[in-house]
Amino acid sequence: MNMQSLESRFENITVNDENEDQYAAPTYHKSKVLFSPVSTFTKAEVIKGSLSTAISLSSLTASAANNRLKLPLQKLPNTNAVKLASNTSTTTVTKVTLPSQAAQRPSDILHQRSSDPVISAQPPPPKQFHLGMFEIGKPLGKGKFGRVYLARERSTGFVCALKVLHKSELQAGKVEKQVRREIEIQSNLAHPNILRLYGHFHDSKRIFLILEFAGKGELYKHLRKEQKFPEWKAASYIAQMAAALKYLHKKHVIHRDIKPENILVGLHGEIKISDFGWSVHAPNNRRNTMCGTLDYLPPEMLKPGRDENYYSEKVDLWSLGVLTYEFLVGEAPFEDTPTMTQRRIARGEMTVPPFVSPEARDLIKRLLVLDPEKRIPLEEVQQHPWIIKHCVKGERAYQRSSGNKQRSSD
Ligand code: AMP
Asked: For position 395, what pLDDT does the model report?
């Protein structure tokens, strides 16, 4: 099938039901043509695709090796192939962002300071991704600005998620800068608990993000379904969050929007931080923009503008405290009317219900500290008695359940 026909088929798909089971038969609404390529993959295929990640990706990486010039972050909007304002009718203009390369490069852009010299060596031509390289499967979900589909790279069988963003919608929503930032940051991250962005490409109307497929969907939905998590599960998630945040902060990236809605779950139950729309690369670790979600906002971000209110990566520690609370209690600690929420956050006013264990309560209280400098550091979170107590047990339970699932899907 040529790319044009696939593209026109793609145009005609609308998402019917984002809440359907991840492996249920796809439900497409097609206005003109039938969607003939393999439109959904069996669970075994998906697992196989995911397990073959290393092989598939290494072949992708090998073919595109050394083809990407790392530019300082602030230069990217001018040089990156993602031109949101583009009104050309070209079908595919691409730029490869291979995280495996990103992870290996010592000149990783996230380590570069604005004072670093711009790399001027001429790069070899980039590998070109385009829509025709992918078989498009069932819709996985719909966000504010785009739709996400299960997809498979034809040549390697590599299973991924393809996020489609319409340029006109991004422009109307004035979020071009946010999307650029998301792409720049996420494509340079490689951690098991952070959703990978393998690459991106665009045509005249849309931007396509090639993302790691998170087979178990949104953590938020799991939490709503279970109401609250058992302590071993919450501890395992918080340990994974701490590892991912440690990695981010080491790269001078502040996420700024940690909440259950921005966390996905991988096929084996592991969590994947996603949505870097609000994250920043802050080499000096200080920013003073107000953003994020009210329930998760740290006190220092409530009063922006004054020098003493500049905030650091420690905002993510506060959000980790809110997350721990919400995992265990089922609702955020400062949930109230907007005015009251702000007031309560500013005073650190919250009560931990008695059913929460003393160890978990201790960790929550050490994270939800008004003074950012006095919050427990991530290294200590990882060693906290609550994490130590539950993680070994949690790991065993997780291994047991994923081992069982693995066997039953074989
Ligand atoms: P977003 O636009 O990123 O908020 O994505 C919309 C929805 O699509 C999410 O809420 C998820 O349910 C789903 N989704 C997004 N990315 C992925 C992914 N990489 N793997 C699986 N599902 C995803």
From this structure: 55
The per-residue pLDDT of the chain, averaged, comes to 71
Quick: pLDDT tens for 34-55: 222 334 455 555 544 443 333 2
Which positions are catalytic? Answer: 257
Cα 170 from Cα 399, distance rounded (Å): 41
pLDDT of residue 303: 72
Nearest CA owner, ligand 1 atom 13? 141
Element (H, E) at 184: helix 176-186
Looking at the CA of residue 145, tell me the nearest atom of ligand 1: 2
Q: How far apart are CA 410 and CA 408, in angstroms?
A: 6
Cβ neighbors of 58 (< 8 A, separation 6 or more) are: 100
CB atoms within 10 A of CB 103: 13
Mutate which of 175, 208, 257, 264 to test ligand 1's pocket (most atoms within 8 Å of Cβ)? 264
pLDDT band for 355, please (50, 70, 90 cuts).
very high
- Ligand 1 atom with least separation from CA of 274: 3
State the pLDDT confidence band at 80, using cuts at 50, 70 and 90.
very low
Distance (Å, rounded) from C-alpha 385 to C-alpha 235? 10
Task: Give the closest residue (by CA) to ligand 1 atom 4.
Answer: 143
CB-ligand 1 contact for 267 (6 Å cutoff): no
C-alpha to C-alpha distance for 20 and 223, rounded to whole angstroms: 17
- DSSP sequence for 21-68: -TTSPP-EEESSS---S--S--HHHHHHHHHTHHHHHHHHHHHTTT--
Residue range 293-319, pLDDT digits in tens: 688 888 988 875 555 456 789 999 999
Write the CB contacts of 22 (distance below 8 Å, at least 6 apart in sequence). Answer: 140, 215, 216, 217
Q: Which atom of ligand 1 is nearest to the CA of 142?
A: 6
In angstroms, rounded to a whole number, what is the distance separating the alpha carbons of residues 152 and 210? 10
In sequence order, what DSSP letters do the residues of 95-125 get, joined into one string? E---HHHHHH-TT-GGG--TTSPPP-SPPPP
Distance between CA atoms of 358 and 119, rounded to whole angstroms?
Answer: 53
389/62 Cα distance (integer angstroms): 43
Q: What is the pTM of this model?
A: 0.69
Provide the pLDDT confidence category of residue 182 given band limits of 50, 70 and 90: confident
